[in-house]
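Data availability (excerpt). The following record was deposited with the supplementary files.
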Amino acid sequence: MDAVMGDLLVFAPAGVEWRPAALQRARRRLEALGFAVTLDPSVRARHQRFAGTDEARLATLHRVADAAPSVALACRGGYGLTRLLDAIAWPRIARSVERGTRWVGHSDLTALQLGLLAHVGAGAAAITWQGPMACDDFGRDDAAGGVDEVTRDGFVEAMSGTLEAIGFRTEPGFDGLDVKGTLWGGNLAMLQSLIGTPHCPQVRGGILFLEDVNEHPYRVERMLLQLHQAGILARQKAVLLGDFGGWRKSPLDRGYTLKTAIAHLRSVCAKPILTGLPFGHVPTKVMLPVGARVQLLVQGRDVLVGW
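Predicted structure:
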């Protein structure tokens, strides 16, 4: 297929990428979708558990921003962006967004996306996309399920500019909810790590979405309670919870689950807390424009988030 979707640059801003076969699968699949794909040198960089030294990864971010590709797609997350937050030239990232770059990823990339929102403020120059990553999603081999069709199609629609809303089913009890606000959030642990720093957005009247992986429900509850006790949840119009899988039960749980943890949060926080958002460290994930003004509508158990 001829490239019709624009240029797409795959880069590694955080953890080291150790899966060359997945990287090549991702490249082929993205090219088949119509993207002109370039692999940034950072995807082959190695330093301890990182895709290069801190200085090299900072240079990667600035290089990608200055190149301003149509799509800047992280190959994976891991850990590493927190080390760079104090040194990132945020105006350079914002200028790339203004020139049309759509930064896409989740997990550790949450730090970059929320940092941009904090330093630039809500508006066109701060909009990035929580969504799939090159190797983790487009590079998944067929034995592991290949590329999820919902994830793939949503990514193509968002990158082509035709995606205007996402929908999902939630629990009963929120019928008639109709609110507007700035959509923001991402990985719960990453957001928690930003609290009290200049890189944490001060969003009022927003719609906050959260996900995490490999965190036991008591840890999820503890992080959510910190957001509540810090006043962050009280400043939102609604909270959307995605997937929180990958954890193991403990003999100490005795009936304590993620469901009971969320029930406790609802008992102390009066804001609407909706579950069921198809997003997180799972194959099926929707695209979410961080920093965009959205409307959240609930009819029965059907939720629509439009922008």
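Summary of structural features: The first helix runs from residue 20 to 32.
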